[in-house]
Design brief:
mainly alpha; Leucine-rich Repeat Variant; two-stranded antiparallel ribbon; 2 strands; about 65% helix; guanyl-nucleotide exchange factor activity
Length: about 800
């Protein structure tokens, strides 16, 4: 078939529609015509690919343009799209496009028309286009600008609806390419898309659903991935149009089921687009950006904010799940500053409708959106008591049940909420109230499911025991850590009740697992400190069987002896995996093993403190083989001393950021776990080591990492204040041990207050960590003899 014959056949395609239904012979004739057309187009394009070079053969390029135009016209008939795609037409057209070098605009225009028509309502052809990776070629030949220019309501008024739809469909293919996205934005694509959506909503009355679907899909991708697009949309009038469609949009009367499903998809795309606008400044390809104008712009727009607040009202029958999801996620993204979070809770009391919505909605998108914003709202200290008092803890804890395990993102957010509410409130009574809601609260009497009376603490423990995600398990254990810190932070009747509930072998097992398996020193340190508190309390307040059970968690005789009793070279090189090593083996590795040399010295000190506590409790409980236990540990530690293993001669040189597990930073719908990079002290100029001075004033205190950060920063910026610490007079010997340290704590705290409020830190932090409080309250033996980590080891045998 010649080029003229192909052109003639293409022009006849509309007239062939009626022949399908006249007779079987006519049906076969139409199929024969289509087969001949497709075969001829494919052959002509294949020849064109072989003949086309980068030369200046104008006649050949004119022929190529005609072929591409004929293909585009043929693809307007849906019967031709599948066979044209299968015949390799897409590949041939793109191969020729690769040879244009942006010098053949006529061919490129027709080629884009062909690809657009071939992809129209045809996912298989779209996949073929994506597979050919033509996005870069389209960008290089100014194809993006040409397509964006076609997206104009004026084109619709001139009978070019199909052309506008095809151009928009092509953009949905291009939005996976970063360069194409940037060009769309630079061509004022956001405004054009919004104007076209407004036309579909106000003029076309949602009659052209295909066009609206492509527009919504493209806008969604732009606003989720490009900060400039987010900023443009946030400052445009079109943003309100998107909200109007989400709230009031409905199909004309008589729409069929397929149209209803298509419109539901459109609304979900528009919801994602609206939420994307509130993400401005968070994500940007190539790295973080500073632009975040929408954070204040949208929040301070009372019309938009009030609409969001109205949409989270579950008792409003006119509010759909799309509106609820959109409002919750958008508010969550706007709640990325303490100012916004505090105002939303203290003035608007959003926690109340959010919790009602969480209980009433069965839509998983809504549930996930609600717990996400609740997590952000739980960050400021001023909000914690309000959010807990609203019943948040008991309501969200239900999502930790095994029946909800398929909802992992929701469960992870719930763990973050519980962890935040269990810590951080400056008011101790508020913090105890929150922790009590976790530890001792039972199911409300009026709860619908009266058979389920599990406390949040029980749900957390059960979640830890069955979850197979390491990050989720670690964060859940940190909820327990925060509860323990609060319970041991002050002497009070409420504290005693909490301690009784928390001092269980089940919780100890969870803490031991974190120390054994975590690769982060901060998490190991939290587990070690918490175990020291629990073990000391159990020794003084729990029956012997509880103490025996606790000690059995830490080791068995066979495991211990296999690792530490022999001083042979084989024993020294023994290094069981953390998953199989018992706690004592892990603690010994932390303290003395060379491969653990990057462990911060404060963690090593706390590990030594826990070892001592284990030995003291074992002796007090008079367990079997106590002497073997003590001597085995002592032999290993003293062996390390003789070999000159350095345990305290380190200095923090810089702060490093570890991967986040989520929880302590506001984030788009984690906390930053930080550890320190330790270098030998000898590599730094003298005098630099603040702890040498502190040791002279009473000995080594097992600091945690946050304390060392404060001290190092303080030494560099407030050296004179710290030098004055050395001027503190020692109390008289008659004063008892607790009073002596209390006086020193207060004096030191007065000096450190200047540091605590420094802008270098996100929030006020006490100088002394929970490990020091443990010394004051439940481990008097540590106060009797405090020194360097080496001193701990060399005198360990006295206990």
């Amino acid at each position: 078939m010649s080029l003229q014959d192909i052109e003639s056949t293409v022009s006849r395609l509309p007239s062939l529609d009626g022949m399908y239904y006249r007779s079987p012979s006519d049906y076969d004739e139409v199929n024969a015509i289509l087969d001949d057309l497709i075969k001829s187009l494919s052959q002509q394009l294949t020849v064109a690919v072989e003949q086309t070079t980068n030369g200046e053969n104008d006649a050949l390029w004119e022929t190529n343009g005609r072929l591409a135009e004929l293909c585009a016209n043929a693809a307007r008939d849906e019967r031709t799209r599948s066979p044209l795609g299968s015949a390799g037409v897409i590949q041939a057209i793109t191969d020729i496009m690769n040879k244009t070098e942006d010098k053949r605009p006529t061919y490129n225009t027709q080629a884009l028309r062909s690809l657009g028509n071939l992809c129209f309502d045809h996912d298989e052809n779209r996949k073929l286009v994506v597979k050919k990776a033509i996005q870069d070629q389209v960008c290089e030949c100014n194809g993006v600008a040409a397509l964006v220019e076609l997206i104009d309501p004026a084109q619709m008024n001139h009978g070019e609806a199909v052309m506008v739809t095809v151009a928009t469909k092509l953009l949905t293919i291009l939005h996976e390419n970063e360069k194409a996205i940037q060009q769309i934005v630079e061509c004022d694509g956001v405004a054009r898309l919004e104007n076209m959506i407004r036309y579909c909503w106000t003029v076309d009355k949602l009659e052209t659903l295909d066009l609206l679907e492509y527009l919504a899909e493209t806008l969604q991708q732009l606003l989720l991935e490009n900060a400039t697009a987010q900023d443009q949309a946030g400052s445009s009038q079109g943003f309100t149009t998107l909200l109007d469609i989400i709230e009031h949009g409905e199909l004309p009367h008589g729409a069929d089921e397929e149209e209803e499903e298509q419109f539901a998809t459109i609304l979900k795309s528009l919801v994602k687009a609206v939420v994307g606008v509130s993400l401005s400044g968070i994500y940007q390809p190539g790295g973080p950006i500073l632009l975040d104008a929408n954070l204040d712009r949208l929040y301070k727009n009372s019309s938009i904010l009030n609409r969001y607040l109205k949409w989270i009202d579950s008792e409003n029958e006119k509010v759909t799940s799309d509106m609820q999801t959109c409002a919750a996620l958008s508010l969550g993204n706007l709640a990325r500053t303490d100012e916004h979070c505090i105002e939303l809770v203290q003035q608007h009391h959003v926690e109340v409708p959010l919790l009602k919505l969480l209980q009433d909605s069965e839509d998983l998108r809504v549930q996930h959106a609600v717990v996400s914003i609740l997590k952000n709202l739980s960050l400021p200290k001023q909000n914690k008591q309000n959010i807990a008092a609203a019943g948040t803890i008991n309501i969200v804890a239900h999502y930790l049940d095994s029946s909800k395990d398929m909802l992992k993102p929701i469960q992870f957010a719930v763990i973050g909420i519980l962890k935040l509410l269990a810590a951080g409130d400056a008011n101790w009574e508020h913090k105890v109230f929150n922790v009590s809601q976790i530890v001792v609260a039972e199911q409300p009497v009026d709860d619908q499911d009266k058979s389920d009376d599990a406390s949040p603490l029980k749900r957390i423990i059960e979640f830890i025991s069955r979850v197979d995600d390491v990050a989720a398990q670690s964060e859940a254990i940190r909820v327990l850590v925060n509860c323990i810190k609060t319970a041991w932070s002050q002497e009070h009747t409420s504290s005693i009740i909490l301690r009784e509930k928390l001092c269980t072998t089940t919780i100890m097992k969870a803490l031991v697992s974190m120390v054994q398996t975590s690769k982060f020193s901060v998490l190991q340190n939290e587990g070690i400190i918490s175990l020291t508190l629990l073990l000391s309390y159990a020794s003084n307040n729990q029956p012997n069987e509880v103490v025996y059970s606790a000690l059995n968690i830490f080791t068995t005789r066979e495991q211990l002896l296999s690792h530490v009793t022999e001083g042979t070279p084989e024993a020294k090189t023994d290094n069981p995996d953390k998953e199989t090593a018992n706690l004592l083996q892990v603690l010994l590795r932390i303290i003395v093993d060379e491969q653990e040399s990057n462990t911060p010295v404060q963690v090593r000190c706390n590990a030594v403190s826990l070892l001592e506590a284990i030995a003291v409790v074992a002796k007090k409980a008079d367990i079997d083989d106590y002497n073997t236990l003590k001597e085995s540990i002592d032999t290993r530690l003293n062996s390390a001393l003789k070999e000159g293993v350095p345990l305290h001669d380190y200095h923090i040189s810089e702060q490093q950021q570890q991967p986040s597990f989520g929880g302590d930073k506001s984030e788009p719908l984690n906390d930053q776990i930080q550890t320190m990079n330790l270098l030998p002290r000898t590599s730094l100029p003298e005098p630099v080591w603040l702890f040498e001075d502190l040791k002279k004033e009473g000995g080594w205190i097992p600091f945690d990492l946050k304390t060392q950060e404060i001290l190092e920063y303080a030494y560099q910026n407030y050296g004179e204040l710290f030098n004055s610490i050395k001027e503190i007079s020692t109390p008289s010997p008659e004063s008892n041990l607790l009073d002596k340290h209390h006086i020193k704590y207060e004096l030191t705290h007065e000096h450190i207050k200047v540091i605590v409020n420094d802008s270098h830190f996100d929030e006020p932090v006490s100088l002394f960590p929970i490990s020091f409080l443990a010394c004051l309250q439940d481990a008097d033996l540590l106060l009797d003899r405090r020194g360097t980590p080496d001193d701990y080891i060399s005198t360990f045998a006295t206990y």
